[in-house]
Design brief:
The protein is an alpha+beta fold. The protein is 26% helix and 40% strand. The chain starts with a helix and ends in a 5-residue tail after the last strand.
Length: 152
Amino acid sequence: MNRRERELEQLLGPTVRGLGCEMWGIEYFPAGRPPMLRVYIDAPDGVTVDDCERVSHQLSGVLDVEEPIRSDYTLEVSSPGLDRLLFKPEQYAAYVGEDVDVRLKFPLEGMRKVVGRLAGATASEVLVEADGATLAVPVEQVRRTRLVPRFE
C-alpha cells in the first residue's frame, strides 16, 4: 500500500468501522479516466450487496466533504472475495498455510511472480514455499498478494 492509499484508508476507515464493517484495504488508481478508488470491506458474517451500497453512500459523503481526490473519480466498494488481496501484516498472519499468488515490482531470482504456500510474514518480508524451497520476498518488493482459493 502506498502513502496515498494509507492516507485514504485513515480518512475513510472510521466511517467503515462506524457502519459495522472492517476496512480490508484500498486500491487507488489515479491514472484511470476517471481515477478509481476501490475500497474492500469485510464483516464477521460476510458482506452483502446492501453493506456495499450503504458503505459506498457514506464514503461518497466523506469524500465529497473532504475532497482528497480533486477530480471526478469512480468509487467502488466490494467484499475482498475468496481470492482476496492481502494488504497488512495481520492479514498475512491469518492466512499462513494458504496458497498465494505474489506479484513482484521487480524480478527476484529471475521471477516476477511467486505462486506457492504462504509460510509466514513479518513487517519486512513474506515467506512463500514454492517448488520445494522457501523464498523470502522483501515487503517493499511486493506489488500485490492474492489468495488462491482451493476448491476440494
